[in-house]
Amino acid sequence: xxxxxxxxxxxxxxxxxxxxxxxxxxxxxxxxxxxxxxxxxxxxxxxxxxxxxxxxxxxxxxxxxxxxxxxxxxxxxxxxxxxxxxxxxxxxxxxxxxxxxxxxxxxxxxxxxxxxxxxxxxxxxxxxxxxxxxxx
Length: 136
Fold this sequence. Notes:
Elements: H1 2-17, H2 21-28, E1 29-36, E2 44-51, E3 54-61, E4 69-77, E5 80-91, E6 95-101, H3 105-108, E7 113-120, E8 123-133
Antiparallel strand pairs: 1-2, 1-8, 2-3, 3-6, 4-5, 4-7, 7-8
């Protein structure tokens, strides 16, 4: 009986000290829903993860094109984009991975940032996908 009680107390103590799932997930990264724009059918996700002092941004879109599509983290929101805060690696065939040295996940989760993908380098005015980075 004492062993069962000791085991139960140890289990409760361990659970009490474990970080919550949402806090742990926030420390590791964030997943952003990318919504297709202008009839592009290019929706998907952008994953943000901290790797030491660098932020890794991985974009994965359905129906991407073989032609390079510029991508950026902009100030503002998808509804009202501001200037480019961080250029990202072009999206090709729906995929892109960028490492931003010296950028923290917390800094882009402070509110007021969005990830945007353009149709092409020659048609930057046409947006094909966008996702707001939620405030942490």
